[in-house]
Please model this.
Amino acid sequence: MPSTFPEDSVGLVTPQIAEFEQPLELDCGKTLPAYQIIYETYGQLNAAGSNAVLICHALSGHHHAAGYHSPEDKKPGWWDACIGPGKAIDTNKFFVVSLNNLGGCHGSTGPASIDPETGKQYGATFPIVTVKDWVRSQVRLADRLDIKQWAAVVGGSMGGMQAMQWSIMYPKRVRHCVAIAAAPKLSAQNIAFNEVARQAIMKDPDFHGGDFAAHGVIPKRGLMLARMVGHITYLSDDSMGQKFGRELRSDCLTYDFNNIEFQVESYLRYQGEQFSTRFDGNTYLLMTKALDYFDPAADFNDDLSAAMAEASASFFIVSFTTDWRFSPARSREIVDALISADKRVTYLEVDAPQGHDAFLIPIPRYLQAFSGFMQRIEV
Model:
């Protein structure tokens, strides 16, 4: 490993692509005739194949969870704080698999991929996918990697929902389930935020009904607005206040709508600008719809306890006090259902000012408990 990387880093990593020729039937009634999933691995699979951990990403996440793609990279993967030698997900112990979901825009088959039937990008014709569809596609990846059972399936936010769905659909293939800053289903308010974001994208003149690639444009303004709205919900009022307050960019007000006067305005516009250049508009629509549709209790007469009764895993559920997007009360719903179903569950509520994004931040108490749970997993 080059000396420029920290000692607790997994170092240089190279993404891999798994091609699947077997058609995948989707919940929406459509079928993908073939698809690919891009993924990364960290650590080594042991001889028994018993030390594999699956990382499921959040809405705008991807496969690059840890390490660096080149020595010139300024930042590591999005969850590098938790994955690596001696970290919570210790790569000296575990073989870690991190992927980009089907429908994504970072290398897995999605709306920006070429439709083999037309030779053009799928665009608006790419079918809607669900959390269940993601899990089914991930099962095939596990089979390809000769992983018969995950030591743990781990995820934050939307990733935590995938982890729960894994434990319900394939109970014999998951020994431990870690769901961080997640919820058993979206509230009406969360669905509303997602709809505002989708409308911002779809109403952009450059969206062209989802076929913007054919016109050589992207719905940049819509994506910027969607990201700005989303980013506000990922932060707490306290964290925004501590970070920006009402600080002005200059010494005086300009009384001009076109000028950026407050630091928080500048921050949000920067976040929106960056996001609009690296994320596909159709993928954003797909991911938010998959979130809206997630409701494992729906298959069990709206009884979450009955849904969780299918699981055989041991659970670790984590929430953060200032997370108002997926509040601690939502995590406690999961915990209550697990207790009612007589499942093994550990619950941690972390006092943290960072809001929903706290699951990405190396908060000492959070990492200590996370590490403790993972260390107890026998491989």
